[in-house]
Amino acid sequence: MSFFKKRRVRKFAEKAVEQQSDFYVFGSNDFTEAFIEQLIQLGAENKVSLISDIKLNWIEEVKTRINVLYEETKEEYAKRNLYETLGFHNAKKVIILHEDPVIIQNIMSYVTGSEFQVILLAQYAPPFVKYLSGQKPGQIIIVNNIFQIINELYSKMDLPLSRPPVIAIPVPKKLVNTSLLDLKIPKVLILRILREEYRKKLLPIHLPPKETDKLILYLEDSQESLKNLVDYLTRN
Fold this sequence. Notes:
Layout: H1 3-18, E1 23-26, H2 30-41, E2 48-52, H3 57-62, E3 67-70, H4 80-86, E4 93-96, H5 101-111, E5 117-121, H6 127-135, E6 140-143, H7 146-157, E7 166-170, E8 188-195, E9 201-203, E10 214-219, H8 223-234
Helix pairs in contact: 1-4, 7-8
């Protein structure tokens, strides 16, 4: 690792300690964007530090609100120096949302065995990671979607809700092309469907939502509403 790169990584690590980041996220894909967006909407942006493999517009937009490190050289993820400089001080969870099995394997090689939990998405977890999760069920956790991660963080980390109680979430697969009129979640009110293909047009909820839509929700009772929401979204 060059002097300037190491200094950049160290600066990122120092900021993570300063803001007491509880978890570190590796990724840049749509799942990463949706996850970071949820944390910001919940007012928990100080709890996360993001390591991205590529510069994207949405990351540039949130850089003023969350701690971001760009590591665009794939080979760096295979080097011990990166992880030693990151330090993972204060970390309770490391969340790997990458799709590339090589990057996942390299990250796992250096974060497995630490005190914090490692969380991955099932659809991207290589077979060896699934094997490890069976050997270390409390440390390596494989989940089916980001809502399970939100639920995990909510239940164990007491996420604060400092933002107004209106949030936007991606439409869950089980609600795509279904009627929202009869959907009942205690203390959660569905306000509108956000359809970005029409320049973020707000649509009434009697229309069936598409997979690319978002739901605009009102949380009547902040934390209790959020708990009810994640309970519903993670229920089979």
